[in-house]
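TICKET #2291
ISSUE: user wants both folds in one file
ATTACHMENT 1:
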Amino acid sequence: MEPPHHGADRAAAVGGRRKRLVARDRDARRAARDRPRALLARRDLCRRRRRRHTADGERHPEVTELEKLFGLRGRVAVVTGASAGLGVEFADALASAGASVAVLARRRERVETVAAELAQRHGVDTLAVEADVSDPESSRRAFERIGRDLGGVDILVNNAGLAPTGRAEKQWPEAWRQTIDVNLTGLFHCCLLAAEAMRRGGRGGRIINISSIFGKLGSSLFRVAAYSASKGGVETLTRQLAVEWAADAIT
């Protein structure tokens, strides 16, 4: 039989171990809770340090190792359909990486607001462009202005799109025509205009065409015949252009 004081020592040891485990668990929970705050604080600090100003107002970028690998300083990006939703998020991501961004959409006041917010938040050059991608002349003028004001085009994100719903037979002809004009024909024309600018720049570029799962399959729940057809066209067109323009470093 174990002496009484040995049992007390064992109980004390177990109790001490339990307290240490509880303390360790508490510290881990506290660290997990504080980590998002620390990350946000570090992100804000990086943004504040992104550009320094000398006495004469000249801006000097501070380039981190991460920015050397993934940064887009000196590049010009164009985002269509950038007045709301995903278009704004795409533009914000590009601006956060240091790119100059042209936000393009039909709603002039909205793109002006988006462009101003991006410039203030990320300290990059932005340009608000009112344009309708279904109108070839409107798109041509938009890209001419972007080239003149921002110096060229390195990245195009074709995001503008329509998605009318309803039975297939009800989408002919008006909804079908409008959807194809914006989602496919307008997208193709923007690709052509961007590729022309990229060739003039002499360093190639990147074209990102936004598609959808509905470009691959049908749905009895969502009746989007025109939208599905347009996105299926976007996917095959994108593959074809990538093959044709690879020699120009446009992919």
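ATTACHMENT 2:
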Amino acid sequence: MSTGSDVFLNPPSNPTSRGATPDRKLRAMQARRVPVARTANPSQLRSASSPALGDSSPRDTATCSRRSSPGPAERHRLRAATLPLPDVVDMVRRAQRRREKAERERRQQNARKKQRRKEKARCARDRLRGLIGDAEAVDKAIEAEVEEARKAGFSAVFKALLVSYLDRERGLLRTVRERVLIARSDAVARAEVLVGLERLRDELWGDARMGVSTVLLDLHLRRTQLIRGIAEAVV
């Protein structure tokens, strides 16, 4: 039977027993560990008990902040390239004033153009009304002349000649009034009227019977020229 002193003199063989020394415990733990290659145990597959060195290494935040901050030369360049807030506000206000001025000028220019178009259209309407009035006045003059020719003491042959010329003038004039002035879309009618007036003028000049009265011949010639002027005045 062993005594208590035998425990200290003859320690047990088990290194993990209660009486083992710390050095013997460490050697026993190292003997149980099996080395594993790094390729077989990559860092991402390691257990939480053995974290990566990068995660456990301390980080000097003060040094990082000092490294990221600009130096004196960089700060000087930043200050030189930075505009003060009042200057920025003044630039924005100047740009806004320029934009407002350009907008006002554009509105004024558009208003002037619109006014000019209105004035031009009004002048065209007034001119057209004047041409229509001239055509109506000439038509009334021809009608009155027809009545006078029928009541005059000319021969029946000469009366018929005058009335035929007057009817042709009135027909051409009414074509100008209805199809050229009022419709304002019949360019063919205006060309036909001009051709008809040219033919009528040539016939008046070549008719020996109209030569007996230079006053009547001149009256008809001036009237054909007036009708031509009304037809050509339409743009």
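RESOLUTION: both attachments delivered.
EXTRA DETAIL ON ATTACHMENT 2: The mean pLDDT is 77.
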